[in-house]
């Protein structure tokens, strides 16, 4: 299947008091048509900044280099006007915090309609009908009434459904979901994940799912990239990743999460913490925390090596490839 | 074994005020009559979703919130009836670890001041002895003596939570109530703190009440688990029984909702419909009945009581017999 989105050598930098700091550093990946790509990593790994770079929604002091190709168009060279035609229309976004990302002053209906009115040649009535249809599609009870209600009248799970309705309103080809269920309780999370899965099957949309939860990844994704300190350290098909994770960080991450279906006295830990953006180690960025680190690891940065379908940025696999 | 802590019929209702004269128009029944027993040396987990009253329970036991009703028996004393000064003395034996390591440490104080404070308040030891205690504790939680002169902002989230744990430990308490101690942390840091808690439990023979929404974490660290729903305990059992043989329909749904990090695992998922009802206006009868797929007429009218179904497993459900037998 063809790629809907290609990201090549993406570099995102911020001007700060400490000088220019890069938070995304040479990220490559692609998303195929109809695929759910998981982006996994802990706070500060650059996963959210990658998505904001794609949407060109970075804060003022941020700048982006590299190439982002969406359906043949280079997003980084588009004018702001052309970008607006894509944003919310062909690429839509679902954010983590439905309370802060919905406008408290507008009704739910008006917020869903907004994108439809902007991107489609429709009358107000048609837009309203579309909004109510979307509310139905995301499983909202009494959609006609909720259309006129405000976000504060809804629960967290309902608000997240509204966010999904907004994102789906223009039939986007790609949805970027940034921790869409992190703020929700498990039973509500189960509802939302099921809904996203169902909508994806119906519409064939591609999804870029950003999360820190490996359980959510296992359930939702076809392929996964693991990010650490602004770089992709591993890329694999979902079964490959869970059956034979390659990068020491991925392995550490998996072993540090307690699981419901197994009993362990101690959890594996990854010592230390993520390096700060302005104090990146010169070699492999994971080396200071890695139990398998060799002399070369702190000297030279490893490339993202292709290990036959699975990719891994680690010196341990370097000889195999050469 | 004598229980260390016995909670009987604990209630905490928050008044809802309305109108110009702030008249009380109703109550949020955050905790609505719960019974818990904690034995020395064990870790009791309290799990539930947001708004189920698990944090309020922890705070009410310590009387950071005044209970509306019920008894909290600790070492034979009813904490709910103690005077303020007497309660202050008891707090030496019951300490708390909070969720947010950023908000729960005073940013203006050094770690030394933070740790010394509780020793000074309770008049423990001489100046030198106090320093000795905190120098020892800071190493126990995996930090160094040199860290004592720094301020909280110099530390990462995981390190701050270590400091929070050190603060709870300096008084050598008999019971620690940890309210979502790892929820704000990244997974690789979370596992460091969980291992630390396990070590401390073993080395200091700690008794712990571990409040969390994360079932995998609770399973990892607890000996017994209480499941709360809308201000009540719906099931309580030792860990193995609860996770292998959950008997309350809510516990079952909760367990089935946790995503597993195994793409090939195909499990039957019970998707609960609807949201948590408001604790200001809880449903009649069994408060879970509007979301329960097994609910009967009886469930709508009569509130079930926690009953022992054998092996120390307590369940609050009218239907446990039918549901239980269908399982075996």
UniProtKB/TrEMBL annotation, chain A:
It is a peripheral membrane protein. GO terms for molecular function: ATP binding; ATP hydrolysis activity. InterPro entries: AAA+_ATPase, ABC_Ni/Peptide_Import, ABC_transporter-like_ATP-bd, ABC_transporter-like_CS, Oligopep_ABC_C, P-loop_NTPase. Keywords: ATP-binding, Cell membrane, Membrane, Nucleotide-binding, Transport. Its main location: membrane. The keyword Cell membrane applies. Residues 5-254 form the ABC transporter domain. It comes from the Bacteria. Pfam families: ABC_tran, oligo_HPY. The keyword DNA-binding does not apply. Transmembrane segments: none annotated. It is found in: Cell membrane. GO terms for biological process: peptide transport. GO terms for cellular component: plasma membrane. SUPFAM superfamilies: P-loop containing nucleoside triphosphate hydrolases. NCBIfam families: oligo_HPY (TIGR01727). Belongs to the ABC transporter superfamily. This is Peptide/nickel transport system ATP-binding protein. It comes from Brevibacillus fulvus.
Automatic annotation (TrEMBL), chain B:
GO terms for molecular function: ATP binding; ATP hydrolysis activity. Keywords: ATP-binding, Nucleotide-binding, Transport. InterPro entries: AAA+_ATPase, ABC_transp_ATP-bind, ABC_transporter-like_ATP-bd, ABC_transporter-like_CS, Oligopep_ABC_C, P-loop_NTPase. One of its GO terms (biological process) is transmembrane transport. Residues 16-255 form the ABC transporter domain. Signal peptide: none annotated. Belongs to the ABC transporter superfamily. PANTHER family: TRANSPORT ATP-BINDING PROTEIN (PTHR43776). This is Peptide/nickel transport system ATP-binding protein/oligopeptide transport system ATP-binding protein. It comes from Brevibacillus fulvus.
């Amino acid at each position: 299947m063809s790629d809907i989105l290609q990201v090549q050598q993406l570099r995102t930098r911020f001007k700060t008091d400490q000088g220019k700091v890069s938070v995304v550093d040479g990220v490559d990946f692609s998303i195929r048509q109809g695929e759910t790509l998981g982006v996994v990593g802990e706070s500060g790994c650059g996963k959210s900044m990658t998505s904001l770079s794609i949407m060109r929604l970075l804060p003022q002091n941020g700048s982006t280099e590299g190439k982002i190709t969406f359906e043949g168009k280079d997003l980084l060279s588009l004018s702001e006007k052309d970008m607006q035609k894509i944003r919310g229309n062909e690429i839509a976004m679902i954010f983590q915090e439905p309370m802060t990302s919905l406008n408290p002053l507008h009704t739910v209906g008006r917020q869903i309609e907004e994108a439809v009115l902007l991107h489609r040649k429709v009358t107000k009535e048609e837009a309203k009908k579309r909004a109510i249809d979307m509310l139905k599609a995301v499983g909202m009870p009494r959609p006609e009434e909720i259309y006129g209600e405000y976000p504060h009248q809804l629960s967290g799970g309902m608000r997240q459904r509204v966010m999904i309705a907004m994102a789906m309103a223009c039939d986007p080809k790609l949805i970027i979901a940034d921790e869409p269920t992190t703020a929700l309780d498990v039973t509500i999370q189960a509802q939302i994940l099921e809904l996203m899965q169902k909508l994806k099957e119906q519409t064939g949309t591609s999804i870029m799912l950003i999360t820190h939860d490996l359980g959510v990844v296992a359930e939702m994704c076809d392929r996964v990239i693991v990010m650490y300190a602004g770089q992709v350290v591993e890329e694999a098909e979902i079964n490959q990743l869970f059956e034979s994770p390659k990068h020491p960080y991925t392995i550490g991450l998996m072993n540090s999460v307690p699981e419901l279906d197994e009993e362990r006295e101690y959890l594996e830990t990854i010592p230390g913490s993520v390096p700060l953006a302005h104090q990146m180690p010169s070699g492999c960025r994971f080396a200071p925390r890695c139990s398998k680190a060799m002399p070369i690891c702190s000297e030279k940065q490893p490339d993202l090596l292709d290990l036959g379908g699975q990719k891994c940025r680690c010196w341990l696999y370097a000889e195999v490839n050469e | 074994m004598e229980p260390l802590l016995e909670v009987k019929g604990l209630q905490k209702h928050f008044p809802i005020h309305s109108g110009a004269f702030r008249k009380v128009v109703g109550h949020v029944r955050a905790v609505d009559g719960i019974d818990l027993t904690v034995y020395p040396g064990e870790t009791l987990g309290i799990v539930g979703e947001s708004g189920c009253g698990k944090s309020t329970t922890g705070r009410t036991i310590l009387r950071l919130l005044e209970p509306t009703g019920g008894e909290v028996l600790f070492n034979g004393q009813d904490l709910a009836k103690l005077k303020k000064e007497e309660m202050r003395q008891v707090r030496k034996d019951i300490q708390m670890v909070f969720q947010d390591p950023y908000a729960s440490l005073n940013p203006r104080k050094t770690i030394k001041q933070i740790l010394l404070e509780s020793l000074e308040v309770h008049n423990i030891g001489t100046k030198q002895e106090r320093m000795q205690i905190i120098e020892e504790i800071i190493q126990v939680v995996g930090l160094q003596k040199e860290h004592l002169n720094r301020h909280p902002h110099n530390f990462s989230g995981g390190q701050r939570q270590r400091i929070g744990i050190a603060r709870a430990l300096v008084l050598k308490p008999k019971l620690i109530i940890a309210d979502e101690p790892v929820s704000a942390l990244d997974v690789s840091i979370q596992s460091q703190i969980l291992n630390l808690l396990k070590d401390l439990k073993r080395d200091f023979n700690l008794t712990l009440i571990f409040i969390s929404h994360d079932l995998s974490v609770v399973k990892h660290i607890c000996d017994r688990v209480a499941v709360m729903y809308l201000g009540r305990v719906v099931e309580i059992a030792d860990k193995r029984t609860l996770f292998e043989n959950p008997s309350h329909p809510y516990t079952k749904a909760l367990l089935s909702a946790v995503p597993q990090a195994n793409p090939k695992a195909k499990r039957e998922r019970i998707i609960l419909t609807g949201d948590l009802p408001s604790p200001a206006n809880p449903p009649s009868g069994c408060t879970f009945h509007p979301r329960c797929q097994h609910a009967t007429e009886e469930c709508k009218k009569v509130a079930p009581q926690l009953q022992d179904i054998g092996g120390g497993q307590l369940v609050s459900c009218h239907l446990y017999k039918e549901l239980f037998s269908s399982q075996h």
